[in-house]
Amino acid sequence: MAEYSFKLPDLGEGTVESEIVAWRAGVGDAVEADQPLVDVMTDKATIEITAPVSGTLVSVAGEPGEVIAVGAELAVFATEKGTELNSVPGESAPAPARPQTSPAIRRLARERGIDLNGINGTGPNGRITRADIEACPDPAGKPAVVESGPETTGVHEIKLVGLRRKIAEQMSLSASRIPHFSYVEEVDVTELERLRRQLNGKRQESRPELTYLPFIMQALVKVASEFPQCNAHFDDERQVITQFDPIHIGIAVQTGDGLMVPVIRHVETLDLWQCARELRQVAEKTRTGKARREELTGSTITITSLGALGGIVSTPIINHPEVAIIGINRMQQRPVFQNNGVTPRLMMNISSSFDHRVVDGHDAACAIRALKQYLEFPATLFLPES
User: Fold this and answer.
1) Active centre residues (catalytic)
2) Which helix (DSSP H) or strand (DSSP E) does residue 338 occupy?
């Protein structure tokens, strides 16, 4: 047998260190070359690193949440003598099949001294579940104890690692350093909905279905040209405001790992259908973990929406170092007094937050009022700039 030391590789674009998010294999496990080994994170991009060789994992660099430098030892493998970096999986002695389960269940099994190889999983495709572990007898020969009472006393500490830690840091930075000014406006989107349905009904198959976000993006382009102070960054250490001519819109996307903000660049050059296509592509790449780091940075203003769960009002937190964020709330039909009578209209609230050091309350209110006008009279979105 020989030992192979695996160093953290250079992940590109000036990365000098990475945070360990989760180990896919544990010390003592037999792994095959190219088998997922560990998830690491740089900025907001989580990257899966695979095993370079086949062998037994002897040691690992650290626990989730720890940061290691590029070039530092990440893991050590015990391999057959002569195994090279580019060895073909299967050339060394075949590794036993690894029971399918989650990292949490593996940890529970280790804590109880239970060998997962002796369990027939009852989950999908034989996956071992918590119930399977609970049903196992104690390794000392005692039967499994099932508590019958409803009382629970467990306390669970969950360490913030990876993306969740980055989100916490970003939110703390934004909330502590930016004096937020929040403004809410009610918008009648009845005509917008009518136009959206008409365009979707006549769209070509090659075009994506329109949601409300492409219209809002198009409206923001016009608003940003009228209120450039809202499409900006503020460096509070240098006391410098940077206003941008291009409009790079961040779209808050909920993923299994937390909230991420992919960026659609140069929205001022896109039409309605192109906005819809870009939205669909960046959202899919972000949810599947395929978004590159450069696709998750560089926004100049952000839109956040909870869709049907949007509630009536929200107070979105600004995406530092931006100075404005637009929150889209739930739409619902309400009775509205109009033309000397009450009529049902489709209404939606827009919740917004601004950095009060950069954007005055009057300007913020005027910007949202302009956005309201474009959405209530959507034909104006297609008029050329005067």
Assistant:
1) 356, 360
2) strand 324-338
Q: In the structure encoding, which two tokens stand for residue 333, read together? A: 């039909």
Rounded to whole angstroms, how far apart are CA atoms 377 and 386? 17
Which residue, 296, 230, 237, is CA-closest to 261? Answer: 296
**Partners of residue 303 on adjacent β-strands:** 251, 326
Instruction: Give which of 244, 235, 281 is closest to 262, Cα–Cα.
Output: 281
Q: At what angle do helices 190-201 and 361-376 cross, to 10 degrees?
A: 50
Encoding tokens for residue 70?
Answer: 């590029």
Task: Say if strands 301-305 and 324-338 run parallel, antiparallel, or are unpaired.
Answer: parallel
CA–CA separation, 45 and 43 (whole Å): 6
Q: Whole-model pTM?
A: 0.65
Distances (CA, A) of 72 to 7, 8, 9, 76: 5, 6, 9, 11
Regions of the chain where pLDDT drops below 70: 12-14, 43-45, 81-98, 102-104, 107, 124-125, 138-153, 162-164, 307-308, 310, 386
Give the chain's mean pLDDT.
84
Could you give the dihedral angle defined by the CA atoms of residues 255, 351, 302 and 217, in that order, rounded to the nearest 10 degrees? 100
**62: closest CA among 52, 51, 81, 76?**
76
DSSP symbol at 367:
H
Beta bridge partners of 343: 336
Report pLDDT for 136: 80
Q: For residues 337-349, b (16+ Cβ closer than 10 Å) or e, as one string?
A: eeeeeeeebbbbb
